[in-house]
């Protein structure tokens, strides 16, 4: 046992032990090449952070229709899988562990990324606002997915997991947070369906549980990222909380490797009487990763209180590739700034 709780080993599952409790949060850097293949610079970037207990990659697109931003990496072509194999090899060579985050943006997209096609979503409800990194494009009204498209999407998540296994990843994290496709199904404003995929908590969560079941058949270690009652890219509806209560309770029966808080700031929420991580912990009995505005001190506190088992760190790990060593030796950290996103260091 290390005296500093952040540096205790953690048994993520019988055959996967993490060397410390610090996890690299998924952060898309939009720096894949034009075939959406990870570059050598990206492999070096991840390898530099291999001393975190676990790296979760940036979100990887499961299919061409998943794109919503320029140059986000993907994992559906053989070249993309080969690219990720190189990344994984470098991280493993330095003793690290790495999960692939797999993702579909749904309506958080625009025809410019989709060969002129409309984005796919549970319902034809547009996200309000401007598409980032474009001149002045507004988000488009998406197209309601057909039953066949939903089935294909579940298959695409499963294939992405199989590709991640082929690339050598230690596991995958299904991205159901931050208002992207799976999260759109879980919210009343974005899911107005009246068929088997909407209209009740059970129906709204159906796609998520089908994805988890299909992914689990392809790769043994499956984590999940959720942002219950977080409202990035979403409009609030009072009925949403009952859906997230239902999801979190049912997750106890899915043998997941962990559940991970998908927040930018995991602060106290009045209607939850605590943080989102505490809310997840109150309903989900497995391993929990906290994330959102944590530093070493706040992370230790959350671990000591039992709010979480692991702490994911995002922006400070962009600013400090040597975050783990600096925390271990109690050196000061470089402060993150958004300009740092222009370069992979
Ligand atoms: C540049 C950037 C890219 C991000 N990309 C992703 C992503 O691909 N997937 C995801 O689930 N969250 C993403 N996030 C959210 C982070 O995982 C994390 O929740 C957030 O940064 C809060 O943690 P922090 O305060 O430690 O930075 C991103 C955040 C940043 C700053």
Describe this protein's structure.
The protein has helices spanning 40-47, 78-93, 147-166, 181-185, 201-204, 206-216, 240-251, 276-283, 296-305, 315-319, 323-328; strands at 10-13, 16-18, 22-24, 54-61, 98-103, 120-121, 143-144, 171-176, 222-226, 258-261, 288-291, 310-313. It has 11 helices and 12 strands. α1 packs parallel to α2 (78-93) and α3 (147-166) packs parallel to α6 (206-216). The model has no long low-confidence stretch (mean pLDDT 97). It is globular. It has a single domain (5-342), classed as Aldolase class I (TIM Barrel). Flavin mononucleotide is lined by residues 25-28, 58-59, 101, 175, 177-178, 225, 262-264, 291-294, 313-315, 341.
Give the SSE layout.
Layout (H helix, E strand, L loop, with lengths): L9 E4 L2 E3 L3 E3 L15 H8 L6 E8 L16 H16 L4 E6 L16 E2 L21 E2 L2 H20 L4 E6 L4 H5 L15 H4 L1 H11 L5 E5 L13 H12 L6 E4 L14 H8 L4 E4 L4 H10 L4 E4 L1 H5 L3 H6 L17
Parallel strand pairs: 3-4, 3-12, 4-5, 5-8, 6-7, 8-9, 9-10, 10-11, 11-12
Antiparallel strand pairs: 1-2
Helix pairs in contact: 1-2, 3-6
The structure holds flavin mononucleotide.
């Amino acid at each position: 046992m290390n005296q500093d709780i952040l540096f205790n080993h953690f048994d993520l599952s019988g055959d996967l032990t993490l060397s410390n409790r610090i996890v690299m949060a998924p952060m898309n850097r939009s720096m894949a090449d034009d075939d959406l293949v990870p570059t050598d610079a990206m492999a070096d970037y991840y390898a530099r952070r291999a001393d975190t207990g676990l790296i979760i990659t940036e979100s990887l697109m499961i299919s061409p229709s998943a794109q919503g931003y320029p140059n986000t990496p993907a994992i559906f072509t053989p070249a993309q899988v080969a690219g990720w194999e190189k990344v994984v090899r470098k991280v493993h060579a330095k003793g690290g562990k790495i999960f692939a985050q797999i993702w579909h943006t749904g309506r958080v997209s625009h025809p410019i990324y989709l060969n002129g096609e409309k984005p796919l979503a549970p319902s034809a409800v547009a996200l309000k606002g401007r598409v980032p990194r474009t001149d002045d494009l507004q988000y488009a009204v998406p197209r309601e997915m057909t039953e066949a498209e939903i089935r294909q999407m579940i298959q695409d998540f499963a294939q992405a997991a199989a590709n991640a296994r082929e690339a050598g990843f230690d596991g995958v994290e299904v991205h159901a947070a931050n208002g992207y496709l799976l999260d759109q199904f879980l919210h009343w404003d974005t899911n107005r369906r009246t068929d088997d995929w909407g209209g009740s908590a059970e129906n709204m969560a159906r796609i998520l549980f089908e994805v988890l079941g299909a992914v689990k058949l392809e790769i043994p270690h499956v984590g999940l990222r959720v942002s219950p009652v977080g409202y990035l890219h979403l409009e609030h509806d009072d009925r949403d909380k009952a859906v997230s209560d239902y999801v979190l309770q049912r997750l106890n029966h899915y043998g997941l490797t962990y559940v991970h808080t998908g927040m930018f700031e995991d602060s106290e929420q009045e209607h939850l009487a605590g943080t989102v991580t505490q809310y997840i912990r109150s309903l989900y009995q497995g391993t929990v990763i906290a994330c959102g505005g944590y530093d070493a001190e706040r992370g230790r506190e959350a671990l000591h209180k039992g709010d979480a088992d692991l702490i994911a760190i995002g922006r400070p790990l962009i600013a400090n590739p040597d975050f783990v060593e600096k925390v271990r030796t109690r050196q000061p950290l470089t402060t993150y700034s958004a300009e740092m996103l222009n370069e992979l260091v």
